[in-house]
Input
Amino acid sequence: MLNPDSIFISYRRSDSQDITGRIYDYLEKRFGSNVVFRDVYSIPLGDDYRIHLREKAQNCQVLVAVIGPDWVTITDPDGNRRLDNPNDWVRLEVETALERGIPVIPLLIGGATIPEEKDLPSDLKPLAHRNAALARPDPDFQSDMERLIRQLEKIVTLAGKARSLTRGQQLKLDYLQTKLTDLEMQLRSVQKELGAITDVTIAGKLEKRQILLLEEIDEVDQTIQTLKIGDG
Output
């Protein structure tokens, strides 16, 4: 049985409210409403939302940070960047998870790229080095959600009891894990380039490379999980 509020969805309403509702629907259908935490659905009436959000961010198993094109730059009514406010709740949610060593998955929407370190407050700088997932418009949205769900399943569920491996199987596992690490490093490099590039042609090529890397990472990772639990 999955722990309640294992998956915390962090998002900024003015940046990604509509698509976050759709993302929530997909995750809720797979994991259950008690497992997926999203503020507007999950905070009981009458509770202090500030305390509630901090508590849930501290105790989740994984935080999904939905990042749109304006996530870094969006300002408050006075023209101050929200991320620069230590009391901004999106900042606090992500910051809390990072401080506690909780996995944080940036989920990029609307053509957003992974934020660069220089654009983030000091406590959020580690976010720039997290492998990001995508949530593209249809017809890619469903496949992107399935990919995200597979990653979340590895964190919030037990894939199965580990089995004893033969020497050949262990060598294969070691090779695959090394390959997976290399692919993830390539993905981080591509995502960093995407955040800095201005040439549309080069950006298009990098986006295609990002998709291919994500697909290859999924394939290798699924092979690793299958090998660990059997049938490999």
Summary: The first strand starts at residue 7 and ends at 10. The chain has a mean pLDDT of 87. The domain at 167-229 is CATH 1.20.58 (Methane Monooxygenase Hydroxylase; Chain G, domain 1). The chain has seven helices and five strands.
